[in-house]
Amino acid sequence: MFKKILIANRGEIACRVIKTARKMGIATVAVYSDADRDAMHVEMADEAVHIGPPPAAQSYLLPEKVIAACKETGAEAVHPGYGFLSERASFCEALEKQGIVFIGPKPKAIKAMGDKIESKKFASQAKVSTVPGWLGVIEDADHAERIAGEIGYPVMIKASAGGGGKGMRIAWSKAEVRDGFERARSEAKSSFGDDRVFIEKFVVDPRHIEIQVLADAHGTALYLGERECSIQRRNQKVVEEAPSPFLDAKTRKAMGEQAVALAKAVDYQSAGTVEFIVDKDKNFYFLEMNTRLQVEHPVTELVTGIDLVEQMIRVAAGEKLGIKQSDVKLNGWAVESRLYAEDPFRNFLPSIGRLTRYRPPEEGTFGDIVVRNDTGVAEGSEISMFYDPMVAKLCTWAPNRLAAIDAMSEALDRFVVDGIEHNIPFLSALMQHPRWREGRLSTGFIAEEYPDGFSPVAPDGEEKAVFAAVATAIELLRRDRLDRLSGRLAPHSGHLKRDWVAKIGADYLPVEIVDGMISIPMEVDLSIDGGKPLTVASDWRSGDAIWQGTVGGNSIAAQIRPALNGLRIAWKGMSVAARAMLPRTAELERLMPEKLPPDTSKMLLCPMPGLVVSIAVAEGQEVKAGETLAVVEAMKMENVLRAERDLTIVKLNAKPGDSLAVDAVIMEFA
């Protein structure tokens, strides 16, 4: 077994590998860029080596820097994680020449399966079911148009060397092929240094289901069940689960055996994933094989009990797999939510900044529930514009699917993140969505259910009562705390008032204190809007980010943030401005005029912090609705900003190469 390994990656996956290596008694070496000097993976590793400036192309993507770090520290093997150099055969070969072991498959398998075009040719020859498409070189946009017309719309344009949703576009018409081809090729070039793309038929209402395979160098290959990865946005996975609620045992076995046959055909040796798209009739088609560890591997580990990172290390060290296919049992259900640094209320645009508060839910086993959080950040860490926006992977396991989903919902409610915008509100709302809970999924789920983007879920009557109860309980403690301050001329509130009003959003709800004492822990009976009394109990203290307690006997974990003249309370994907006040205060507040936001209708604002890739217009130019105004790159994705109406460009305030903050004015128009 290895004595020391180097992790050629960063963030949560580097931390994940370090944890298993530590468990196995293997010393670890981290590499880091200037932006990651104080990162968690650097702190966790036994040694760390600086390899360059923040851009990945000048640090994490340079094989020679990684090899030099191995020689400097005496690392015998390299675990590449995912992304970066994980699927680059030339890197694997360079390591072999230096006598350093690559913890992953051999170059032959990487070359055969790592390239999407070549892998589809190989799979077709191996009698694996594939999607109709054009696998040859596409010369230009005109060529792309002809191919798409022959295949039939809709089509998927994909980068050959791509991954993680980069360099991928769906075209529903001839007009969309040209723009999709150029954008996919540009993203592929900037992200992977390879601008080749291919085109294939897009299966309508598909599910994305993948099979985890594991193989050693002694002829053993097996599959560890499947993962359902259909909840995606812009082809980037958001929520995954294992097993799939759609597959039956027969289809699972057929997919698994086909995945193993493909792995054996390329002499695969390590953990890998064979991805399929599955139509409504359970017909499945080979999509690609990822010759590396997948982001979503924890859900497979939770339902099988197999540590995939440990198995990868053991296989790389030449050991035989200690399990056979009959040993693989799927136990219970696991769900993974990817926490991204993006603003769900602004069409999921990237967000960067420092984590002023980062308090994940407690990990461990709690009765029949398991909570796991794979992360690479801590409070005070900075989310940089240079890397992927994923902050953490929150996972829950339970004996059945709905229990795992409910556990995820509660864990998300307890996940505190401040300093950046993040997608926890969306993930929390998703856990309550009827279609998700019923398992009626497709890769178009988010686009179909949120066609106009995500907005806070509006609470109904019972939910408003919960918000009102929490807001009132917090206000009662605040008043009591003020009364206890020494040196006051007079009590702030005197004796406990019986009647209150809770403002939830724009609604004013009368609240009556029926019984109870104001103390910590608190237990008080409240009647909300004339309803029957609800017992509110909690040991919440001023300053706690999470209000934990019960309302009417139901367990509640709500996030609390101070806001102007009140609070912002978030719970189960709902977020409301809340304030509890005396009736006279509420009466006067209703008379206050509403402040209107400034008019920005004649400006193009930068929707996220990013780099201006191109400006497509000039001052004085007339532009039609839908035409491109500018392209802004953020976190490795190019975002096309289009005109929402016919307009004339009056002034350009930015140029290509400029780094802009969110809401910076790119141009003005009439």
UniProtKB/TrEMBL annotation:
The record places domain Biotin carboxylation at: 1-451
Coiled-coil stretches noted in the UniProt entry, renumbered to this chain: none
Which cofactor is essential here? biotin
Question: Which residues does UniProt assign to the signal peptide?
Answer: none
Sorted keywords for this record are: ATP-binding, Biotin, Ligase, Lipid degradation, Lipid metabolism, Magnesium, Manganese, Metal-binding, Nucleotide-binding
Q: Pinpoint the Lipoyl-binding domain residues.
A: 591-670
Q: Does the keyword Manganese apply?
A: yes
User: Which superkingdom heads the taxonomic lineage of this protein's source?
Assistant: Bacteria
- Domain named ATP-grasp: residues: 120-317
Classification via PROSITE patterns: ATP_GRASP, BC, BIOTIN, BIOTINYL_LIPOYL, CPSASE_1, CPSASE_2
Q: What class of enzyme is it?
A: ligase
- InterPro entries with a match to the protein in the record: ATP-grasp, BC-like_N, Biotin_BS, Biotin_carboxylase_complex, Biotin_carboxylation_dom, Biotin_COase_C, Biotin_lipoyl, CPAse_ATP-bd
What's its catalytic activity? Answer: propanoyl-CoA + hydrogencarbonate + ATP = (S)-methylmalonyl-CoA + ADP + phosphate + H(+)
Q: In which pathway does it act?
A: Metabolic intermediate metabolism; propanoyl-CoA degradation; succinyl-CoA from propanoyl-CoA: step 1/3
This entry's Enzyme Commission designation comes to 6.4.1.3
User: What is this protein called in UniProt?
Assistant: propionyl-CoA carboxylase
